[in-house]
Design goal:
- The structure is a single chain.
- The chain has 153 residues and is mainly α.
- The chain has a three-stranded antiparallel β-sheet with strand order 1-3-2.
- A hairpin with a 2-residue loop joins strand 2 and strand 3.
Amino acid sequence: MKSTDQAAPVNVMLSDFLCFAVYSANLAFGKAYKSILEELGLTYTQYITVIALWEEDNQTVSGLGEKLFLESNTLTPILKKLEAMGYLERRRDPEDERQVRVSLTKSGRKLREKGLNMDLVEATGLAPDEFAQVQKAIARLRNNLIQAVRAAE
């Protein structure tokens, strides 16, 4: 034990764990998004994939995976399903045949009209400035954790 370490508290409660607060907030988001996703006919992961393509269309699969923090073996089935639903197209990059590019179809772009009209910012109960602060803090937390894992490897 380092001299800067403190003894672990005796009565640590589940609610004291930051990881549990983040995990349970994620579950609450899932429940809050349920009706939106049902109306769109998408899973949450499919939904964020489409949002990432609204942000930047014609991305490589690898670039999209990095943006979404998804491995290729997780992302590929999602892309295949969205392609079967008519929301996107996958094509080999003519300049580099090893790369596959993903683009939204007209139907995929139309989802934006429906999807963005159902934002849940209000449901968080946070004022706009609080919302931005929380979002930035969680993104910083995520990035710090990723960096710590990479440094430990």
